[in-house]
Amino acid sequence: MYSAQITRANPTCIILLIDQSGSMGDPFSGDSARKKADFVAEVVNHTLHDLVIRCTKTEEVRNYYHVSVIGYGRSVGSCFSGELGGRPIVPIAHVADYPLQVKSSYKRVSDGAGGWVEIPVRYPVWIHPTADGKTPMCEALTRVQEILRGWLLEHPRGFPPTVLHLTDGESSDGDPNEIGRQIMSLGTDDGTVLLFNCHISTRRSAKIEYPTEETSLPDGFARTLFEISSRLPTNFLAAAAQLGVNALEGSRGFVFNGDPSSIVQFYEIGTSLTGMTPYRWMDDRTELA
Amino acid sequence: MSSAKQSTTWDLQLRQLLLPKLGHEAAECEDAIAIDKQASRFAVADGATESFDARNWAERLAQHWVQRKSTLTVEEFRDWVATEGRELHDSWNSLTLSWYSEEKARYGSFATLVGVELDLNTEPLSWQAIALGDACLLQCRNKTLLKSLPLSGSEGFNSGPVLVASDSSLHENSMKSVVTDSGTCQNGDVLLLMSDAASLWCLQRFESGDLDVDAFLSVKSDEELQEFFDTERMAGRIRNDDLAIVRIEIKWSKS
Predict the structure, then answer these.
(1) CA A90 to CA A202: how far, in whole Å?
(2) pTM attached to this predicted model
(3) How far is CA A246 from the centre of its chain?
(4) Distance between CA A1 and CA A162 in Å, rounded?
(5) Helices (H) and strands (E) in chain B, counts
(6) A58 in contact with B, Cβ within 8 Å
(7) How far from A118 is each of A105, A112, A113, A283, B107, CA to CA, in Å?
(8) CA–CA distance, A234 with A2 (Å, rounded to integer)
């Protein structure tokens, strides 16, 4: 299970589900300058950038992934706009070709002789920060389920879809447990859908990352998210270990009261999949200027 | 009456196989083979799938190795890899690239490499090899494994092999892992240069005493070699990866 090679003939599906409720416009605790929605949009854009780069073969982007970014707040739907607007799921080559804009900047890199040089880099943008409305989590998960059902009909074989859900609060439209379980029961011949949840907090509370059991969780909402979080397969555990994250056999893909670093790691671990060398291994000599 | 003087020379019987991953076009294969039988120099390189222009980089490394005439030192290796890398990066300057190709090109290209040079004028025949990463040279005698480098066994393989970067600023650590070695051959020895999937397959079979190795070592033609690995692939006994194999059987030839 969770070992199928990801190829163009057998691509996998990655769904980024983002809470865009009004509270996402609040800052992280202890960091009044940084709004959660701004940071999440930045990380999502960076994640899409990394997925594109992983699939880039010289001048071609191979469709190893089909990607969806769904937001929920005032409404539920795709966060893509422009050329990608109105499409619930798109092949990664289309993501590559249709960012809303490509920003240019400079990055400081080692010159290999103990010094640093600045080189031009490009930062594509696909989604902008949004924070408005309530938290219709059940409706959003139902939308995800619809997308998955359609995608799985055409892709019954291969590495199963991964859903990375990020939220900062409790559902405003009911208990997400049932729909979460339904999503986790879908799958391919290589395993069931992986649903991972990252809860971020405005309060100063101890974060809980990738727990193995729910006894350590503080309340019913945390336990609900734990129950609808898949266990991390071996490849994901290896990715977590590479990042220095303490995840064990049996750990759920679940973070509670996460901070900004938790979000970055959540997306890195959640998109590590299998058979793909992490893009960042080539990046360890660089730093942002 | 004196009999005519009979001289003995070495004869190299070559087989080679270069196959893309199943489901891929031949042009998508990022492994490379280079052979100069005249100079008795052979190389296999494996372009890292996720790097930019990997096939071109693998081909450059393998070709450069077989075209060299000089001896083997890590310092020389480092110098010519840096030169080849600069030329590769220069070749990209004239291209108009999309944002993603530009980003990818910024990191350059990566590959593993194994090269061997045989000296047919020595008795016994001698070889020198250089290797970096998980493309391996195996020396087999009487269907047993005599030597394997740079990795000596299947436990040495993982998803992050040491790679030769086209960007020389990344050579500091990788060049520490370059392996050079030498040895001698007897009549009937088989030298195998192989990219990672085939190397791993072969080492695992030697370790388990699997009879498949005998069949592999006994192939009589390039076609037989391909048929053999097609069967292994269809049975799921070898990872679906590009395959590059050069098989050199060393024989006495009396004239």
Answers:
(1) 33
(2) 0.80
(3) 19
(4) 14
(5) 7, 11
(6) yes
(7) 10, 13, 14, 14, 14
(8) 8
Low-confidence ranges of chain B (pLDDT < 70): 1-7, 70-71, 255
Average pLDDT, chain B: 90
Distance CA B136, CA B157 (A): 11
CB contacts of A284 in chain B (<8 Å) are: none
User: For B91-132, what is each residue's pLDDT tens digit?
Assistant: 998 888 999 998 889 889 999 999 999 999 888 899 999 999
Which residues of B are less than 8 Å from A58 in CB distance? 52-54, 101, 104
Is the Cβ–Cβ distance between A37 and A131 less than 8 Å? yes
- What tokens were used for B87? 């030329």
In this complex, the residue of B102, B110, B169 whose CB is nearest that of residue A111 is: B169
Name the percent of chain B lying above pLDDT 90: 64
Candidate from A5, A53, A276 with C-beta closest to B100: A53
B236 touches chain A (CB under 8 A): no
Contact residues for B247 (Cβ-Cβ < 8 A; gap 6+): B14, B15, B16, B190, B191, B192, B217, B219, B225
What element of type H or E holds A107? strand A101-110
Q: Using alpha carbons, list the distances in angstroms from residue A66 to A11, A54, A93, B195.
A: 7, 13, 9, 30
DSSP for A66-87 reads EEEEEEESSSEEE---GGGTT-
Smallest Cβ distance to B97: which of A59, A99, A276? Answer: A59
Q: Which amino acid is at A182?
A: Q
pLDDT score for A18: 98
